[in-house]
C-alpha cells in the first residue's frame, strides 16, 4: 500500500462544486469536494441520501444534466486529463471503457426487450473491441466470471428472468467488460438481501484484486463501507466532513457527524440493553391472521409447464395492541404479499385475518372504510408511493380528503405543518413536490401521511430499508416514540435483521412463503433454532481491517 | 430530531400569483409566446370579424375574379387576392375563422372529454362495461368515418350541431384508446395502491390521481387533431352535408380553390396556410403546457440563476 500512495492517483477530483438551478437561488449539491483514488484501491464515499455523494461521481461520468446541473468550478483529472473540458465524443471513449459505473437498481438500467447477452456484447461492439461472434463468446465468459451458473444457456435470457442479485451480477459483467481502470459503484447492494449482498461484495473484491481496478463505492451502509474500504470520505450537505484511512475513521471518528453515524450502527453487544422495544404489551390482539394462503397460477415458466406457486403458505400470527411484530425474510419469501393481503390490495386465496374481531376479507363497504382509516401502510419505495403531480401538502392531507370526518378543511394547513415537524421536516416543505426530496425525506413524508388519519395499526413494508443508518435510527426512534405516545401497533416487514432487533417485540422469520421460526426478539437473536435464521444472522459483513488481520493470522497470502 | 438538510433552497416567501407565474413561464419560451399571440389574435378575429368585415367578405365583385395577391390597386382588403367570385380573401379568412374554430374547437373538446372519460373508465375497471366501451370504439374505428357521417347527417339533416356531433364521434376512439393505454400502466403504480390502502374511492383515484397524468397526453393529441377536424369538416361541406352556403369555413375555402390550383393558387393557399399555422400554434402551446404541468420538467421554463464565480 505504501508504494501505491506515492504513485500518481488514477482519478483526482479537485474542488468540485456543482449547483442545481431553478427559479430560486441555485442550490449547492456539491461544495468544494476533492478526493482521489489510486489503482487497486477502494475508496468509499459515505453519506446520507441528499448529501451529494451520487452527484459528485455522476459528474465524473458526465451524467449530470446541464442544465439544471451546473459545474461552478473544479477539475476532474483522469490520468492527468481534465474530463470537464472534453467534448462528448472524447468523453464517450472514456466512459464505459476506462471508467465504468454500476447502479443501485439493475432492472432500471437493463433494457427489458434485449437478452442480457446482447446487451453485454453491445458494450464490446460499441467500443469496437470485438465483432459479433467474439463478443458473444466474451459475454459468456464474463457471465461465468461473475458467477452466473450455466452461462451458455443464460446468455439468451431476458433481464426479467434473473433475480435481483443475478441482475446486479449482469450489470457488473457489463461494467467490467472492457477492463476499466476505475469502477464506480453507486449503492450496488442497497436493493439486495443480506446474503446476496455478501456475495456481490465478495465478487467486487475479487474482481478488483484480479484486475487492479480502482473502486469508488458510494454507500450509506456503514457495514458495507467498513467491509470494503481502504480509505473513506464522509459527506454531509455536499461537503466532505471527514476523510482518511478506513480503520482510523471508523474506530476513531473525529467529526461529530461521523461519530453520530458510527454510534447509529444498530449492531453491537449493547444493542440488547438499549433497545426501543415496547415494555408492556396488552394481551388483547388487534390483528389475528389464520392460515393465510396466496397462490399464483403461472402459465408457463422458462422450464416448467403449468404450475401453482404458493407465495404465502399457511401463515398464522397475532399482533397485540401496542406491540411490534417484525416479519423477516429475503425477497421472495412472501412477506410483502402478507402485507398486501392484510390491506386488501391483493385478494387472499384462503385463510382469514381478524381486525378487532372482524374478518378483513369479508368486510362490507362501511366497515372497510373504517378499517382503511385505522390501518395504514408505509410502502417500501418512497419514489413510487406518491403521486408526482401532487405537492407534499396535498399528499399528507389526502386521508382527510378521503375520510371527510377526520379534520375540518380550515385546519389542514396547520396540521400538515405539525405532522411535518413531527417527522422531523420543516413546515415550509409543504408546497414542494416529492421529486425535490431525497429518499429519506420522502419516506418521512410517507410516514406523516400514514399518521394523518390517526391509525391504530401501521404496516411498514421495508419502510426504512432504502434509508441511511443514521436516518434509519431516527425513523425507528420516531416510530417507537409514536408507539408509546399514540399506542400504535406495527407490523414491520424487513429483510434486515439488525433493524428489528432494536424495535420489534416479536419476530417472525419467513422463508419461501412459510413461517420457519417465530418468537421473542431476544430469543431469536440469542438462540436461533432454525438454520435459515442462523444464516441470516451470519451474513452481516465484517470490517475489512479485521478480516485482513484474520487472514494474515491464518497464514493466507495478502493481495 | 433535526431537519435533514435539503439540496433545494428554501421557497422564497413572496410568491407571485399563479397567472403571473404562468405568464413568466410563457415569456421564457419564445416560440410558445408567439403561438399564444397568434391564437389570441385568431380568437379576436373570430369574435370581432363578422362584425367588422362581414359585408366585405360576401361582396361579389366580378371585376376582381381570381385577382392575384399583393396588389393594392383594389384597396387593402384585396391584398391576399380574391376568389373565383371576386370576393376578397383576407376578410373571408377573418370571418371564416369564427365558423372554422367554433366547429373544430367544439368537436375536439367534445371528443376529448367523452373519449377521455370513457377511456379512464375502460382502463380502470375490469368489469363488463369496459369491454362494451372498447368494442364500441373498435366499431367506430373500423367503420369508414365518412360513410358514418353521411348516414347520420342524411338522416338528421345538416346543421352545425349535428356536424359537431358527427365529427366528435368519429374522432373519439383515438382519445379513448390512448387514455385507456395510459391508465392501464398508471393504475399499477405504487401511489395508486397507496391511495387505495388509504380508502380512496375509485372515482377519487381516477380523477385525482390518474387523470392529471393522462390529460397532458390527450391535450397533445387534441392539438394535432384540430387540423384533421377542420379538413374533415370541409370534406363534409364539400358533399353538401356540412356548413351550407352562404356560410363558409376555411375548409370550404380550400375545397373551393382546389380546381384552380394551376391558375390561381392563392385561393386554396391562404386558407391552407391559416389551418397549418393554427395547428402548429396549438401544438407548440400544448407542448409548453405539458412542460409546465410536469413538476419535474418545469425547470426548463425557469430562470436558471447561476452562482457568481
Average per-residue pLDDT of chain A, rounded, comes to 80
The CATH homologous superfamily of the domain at 98-297 in chain B is called MetI-like
Give the fraction of residues assigned to helices of chain B.
Answer: 55-70%
- How much is the radius of gyration of chain A in Å? 25 Å
Number of strands of chain B: 0
Concise synopsis of the structure shown:
Chain A is α/β, with parallel strands linked by helices. Helix content of chain A is about 35%, strand content about 25%. In chain A, β11 and β12 form a beta hairpin.
Mind explaining what this structure looks like?
In chain A, a hairpin with a 2-residue loop joins strand 9 (231-236) and strand 10 (239-245). Chain A has 23 helices and 20 strands. Mean pLDDT of chain A is 80; it is low at 1-6, 266-273 and 553-559. Chain A has 559 residues and is α/β, with parallel strands linked by helices. Chain B has a domain at 98-297: MetI-like (MetI-like fold, Orthogonal Bundle), CATH 1.10.3720. Chain B is built from ten helices and no strands. Mean pLDDT of chain B is 80; it is low at 1-14. Classes of the chains: A alpha/beta (559), B mainly alpha (309). The interface between A and B is large, with 66 and 40 residues.
Amino acid at each position: 500500500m505504501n508504494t501505491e500512495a506515492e504513485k500518481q492517483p488514477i482519478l483526482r477530483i479537485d474542488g468540485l462544486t456543482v449547483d442545481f438551478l431553478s427559479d430560486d437561488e441555485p442550490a449547492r449539491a456539491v461544495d468544494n469536494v476533492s478526493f482521489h483514488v489510486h489503482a487497486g484501491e477502494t475508496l468509499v464515499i459515505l453519506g446520507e441520501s441528499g448529501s451529494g455523494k451520487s452527484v459528485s461521481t455522476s459528474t465524473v461520468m458526465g451524467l449530470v444534466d446541464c442544465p439544471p446541473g451546473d459545474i461552478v468550478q473544479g477539475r476532474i483529472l483522469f490520468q492527468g486529463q481534465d474530463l470537464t473540458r472534453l467534448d462528448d465524443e472524447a468523453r464517450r471513449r472514456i466512459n464505459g471503457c476506462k471508467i465504468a459505473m454500476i447502479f443501485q437498481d439493475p432492472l432500471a438500467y437493463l433494457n427489458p426487450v434485449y437478452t442480457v447477452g446482447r446487451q453485454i456484447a453491445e458494450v464490446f461492439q460499441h467500443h469496437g473491441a470485438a465483432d459479433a461472434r467474439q463478443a458473444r463468446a466474451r459475454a459468456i465468459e464474463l457471465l461465468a466470471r461473475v458467477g452466473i451458473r450455466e452461462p451458455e444457456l443464460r446468455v439468451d435470457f431476458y433481464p426479467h428472468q434473473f433475480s435481483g442479485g443475478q441482475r446486479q451480477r449482469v450489470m457488473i459483467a457489463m461494467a467490467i467488460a472492457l477492463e476499466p481502470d476505475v469502477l464506480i459503484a453507486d449503492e450496488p447492494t442497497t436493493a439486495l438481501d443480506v446474503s446476496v449482498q455478501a456475495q456481490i461484495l465478495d465478487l467486487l473484491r475479487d474482481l478488483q484484486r484480479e484486475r487492479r481496478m480502482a473502486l469508488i463505492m458510494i454507500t450509506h451502509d456503514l457495514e458495507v463501507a467498513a467491509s470494503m474500504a481502504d480509505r473513506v470520505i464522509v459527506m454531509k450537505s455536499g461537503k466532505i466532513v471527514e476523510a482518511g484511512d478506513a480503520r482510523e475513521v471508523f474506530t476513531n471518528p473525529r467529526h461529530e457527524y461521523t461519530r453520530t453515524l458510527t454510534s447509529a450502527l444498530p449492531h453491537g453487544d449493547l444493542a440488547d440493553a438499549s433497545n426501543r422495544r415496547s415494555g408492556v404489551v396488552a394481551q388483547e390482539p388487534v390483528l389475528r391472521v389464520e392460515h393465510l394462503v396466496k397462490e399464483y397460477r403461472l402459465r408457463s415458466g422458462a422450464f416448467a409447464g403449468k404450475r401453482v406457486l404458493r407465495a404465502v403458505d399457511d401463515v398464522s400470527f397475532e399482533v397485540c395492541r401496542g406491540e411490534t411484530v417484525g416479519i423477516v425474510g429475503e425477497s421472495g419469501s412472501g412477506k410483502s404479499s402478507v402485507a398486501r393481503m392484510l390491506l386488501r390490495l391483493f385478494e387472499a386465496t384462503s385463510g382469514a385475518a381478524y381486525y378487532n374481531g372482524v374478518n378483513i376479507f369479508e368486510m362490507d363497504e362501511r366497515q372497510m372504510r373504517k378499517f382503511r382509516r385505522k390501518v395504514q401502510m408505509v410502502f417500501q419505495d418512497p419514489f413510487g408511493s406518491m403521486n408526482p403531480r401532487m405537492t407534499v401538502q396535498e399528499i399528507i392531507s389526502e386521508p382527510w380528503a378521503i375520510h371527510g370526518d377526520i379534520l375540518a378543511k380550515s385546519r389542514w394547513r396547520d396540521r400538515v405543518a405539525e405532522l411535518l415537524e413531527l417527522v422531523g421536516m420543516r413546515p415550509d416543505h409543504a408546497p414542494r413536490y416529492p421529486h425535490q426530496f431525497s429518499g429519506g425525506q420522502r419516506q418521512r413524508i410517507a410516514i406523516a401521511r400514514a399518521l394523518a388519519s390517526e391509525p391504530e395499526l401501521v404496516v411498514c413494508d421495508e419502510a426504512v430499508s432504502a434509508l441511511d443508518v443514521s436516518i434509519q435510527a431516527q425513523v425507528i426512534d420516531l416510530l417507537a416514540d409514536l408507539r408509546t405516545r399514540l399506542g400504535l401497533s406495527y407490523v414491520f416487514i424487513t429483510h434486515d435483521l439488525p433493524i428489528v432487533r432494536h424495535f420489534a417485540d416479536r419476530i417472525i422469520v419467513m422463508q419461501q412463503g412459510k413461517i420457519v421460526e417465530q418468537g421473542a426478539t431476544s430469543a431469536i437473536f440469542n438462540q436461533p433454532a432454525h438454520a435459515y435464521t442462523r444464516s441470516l444472522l451470519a451474513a452481516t459483513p465484517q470490517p475489512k481491517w479485521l478480516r485482513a488481520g484474520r487472514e494474515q493470522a491464518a497464514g493466507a497470502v495478502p493481495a | 430530531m433535526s431537519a435533514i438538510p435539503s439540496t433545494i433552497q428554501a421557497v422564497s416567501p413572496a410568491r407571485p400569483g399563479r397567472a403571473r407565474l404562468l405568464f413568466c413561464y410563457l415569456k421564457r419560451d419564445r416560440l410558445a409566446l408567439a403561438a399564444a399571440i397568434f391564437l389570441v389574435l385568431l380568437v379576436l378575429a373570430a369574435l370581432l370579424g363578422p362584425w367588422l368585415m362581414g359585408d366585405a367578405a360576401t361582396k361579389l365583385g366580378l371585376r376582381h375574379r381570381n385577382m392575384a395577391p399583393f396588389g393594392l390597386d383594389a384597396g387593402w382588403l384585396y391584398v391576399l387576392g380574391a376568389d373565383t367570385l371576386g370576393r376578397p380573401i383576407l376578410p373571408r379568412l377573418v370571418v371564416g375563422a369564427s365558423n372554422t374554430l367554433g366547429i373544430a374547437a367544439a368537436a375536439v373538446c367534445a371528443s376529448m372529454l367523452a373519449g377521455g372519460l370513457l377511456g379512464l373508465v375502460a382502463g380502470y375497471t375490469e368489469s363488463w362495461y369496459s369491454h362494451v366501451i372498447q368494442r364500441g370504439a373498435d366499431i367506430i374505428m373500423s367503420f369508414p368515418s365518412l360513410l358514418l357521417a353521411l348516414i347520420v347527417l342524411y338522416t338528421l339533416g345538416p346543421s352545425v350541431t349535428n356536424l359537431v356531433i358527427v365529427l366528435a364521434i368519429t374522432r373519439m376512439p383515438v382519445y379513448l384508446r390512448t387514455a385507456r393505454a395510459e391508465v392501464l400502466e398508471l393504475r399499477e403504480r405504487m401511489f395508486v395502491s397507496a391511495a387505495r390502502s388509504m380508502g380512496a374511492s375509485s372515482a377519487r383515484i381516477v380523477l385525482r390521481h390518474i387523470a392529471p397524468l393522462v390529460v397532458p397526453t390527450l391535450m397533445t393529441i387534441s392539438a394535432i387533431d384540430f387540423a384533421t377536424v377542420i379538413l374533415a369538416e370541409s370534406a363534409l361541406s364539400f358533399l353538401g352535408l356540412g356548413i351550407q352556403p352562404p356560410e363558409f369555413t376555411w375548409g370550404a375555402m380550400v375545397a373551393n380553390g382546389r380546381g384552380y390550383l394551376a391558375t390561381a393558387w392563392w385561393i386554396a393557399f391562404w386558407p391552407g396556410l391559416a389551418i397549418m399555422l393554427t395547428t402548429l400554434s396549438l401544438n407548440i402551446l400544448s407542448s409548453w403546457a405539458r412542460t409546465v404541468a410536469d413538476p419535474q420538467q418545469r425547470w426548463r421554463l425557469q430562470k436558471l440563476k447561476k452562482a457568481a464565480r
